[in-house]
Amino acid sequence: MTQAAPVAHAHRPPATPKSLIIRPWPKVVFLYPTFVTGVVCWIISFFSSDVTPEGVAVTANHIGNVFAVVFALNLLVFSFDFSRIKTITIAVGVLAVVFGIGWANTQWGWFKGIKDVVGKIDIRMNTQFYGAISIFLAFILGLVFVNTRFNYYEINHRELLHHHGYLGDITRMPTSGLY
Q: What CA–CA distance (Å, rounded) separates 63 from 129?
C-alpha cells in the first residue's frame, strides 16, 4: 500500500471584501429598550394575579414604575446625542448624588423620607397597554428594518453606489480622485 505525498498549497492572502455596504438607521431604533421592556411587562402582567385582600394589584404598581423609568431613560437617550464625556459626566454626577444621599442618611436619616416619597409613586398600566405598545413598536421597528433593505450605500473599489427606492434606483458616484 502506497501513501500519497502531502500536497503543498501556495500561501493565499486573505480574501478582501469586494464591496462594503452601509445601511443608515433612523433614531427610532434607540427605542428597542422600551420595546423589550414592554414585551416583558406584557408577559408579566398577563400571568400575574397578585391581588391584596383590598383588591389592589401589587405587581401592577411595580411593573408600571419599571416601565416608566425605562421609557423616561430611553426618551432621554433618544432626545440628546450623548458624547462619551457627557455620558461619563452624567454617570459621575448620578454616583455623587447617590453617595451624597447615603451620607445624608447617616447624618439625618433621609432614607425613610425618600422611601416614603418613592413608595407613593403609583404608575399603573394594564395588560392591553403593554400589548399595544409592544405591537406598535414591533411594527415600527419591522418597517424600519424592511426600509433599510431598500435604502443603503455600497462602496467598492471603483465607485460609491446609493441604492434607494423600492424599484431599485441607483445613484452612481465615481471614486476616481478621492483620497
A: 12
**Radius of gyration for the alpha carbons in the chain, expressed in angstroms and rounded:** 27
- Contact call for residues 66 and 41 (beta carbons, < 8 A): yes
C-alpha to C-alpha distance for 42 and 40, rounded to whole angstroms: 5
Model confidence, pTM:
0.69
Q: Is 54 helix (H, G, I), strand (E, B) or coil?
A: coil
CA dist., res. 167 & res. 72, Å (int)? 39
Terminal CA-CA length for the chain: 61
Amino acid at 42: W
Locate 17 and state its grid cell.
Answer: 471584501
pLDDT tens sequence across 45-80: 888 866 555 655 557 778 888 999 999 989 888 888
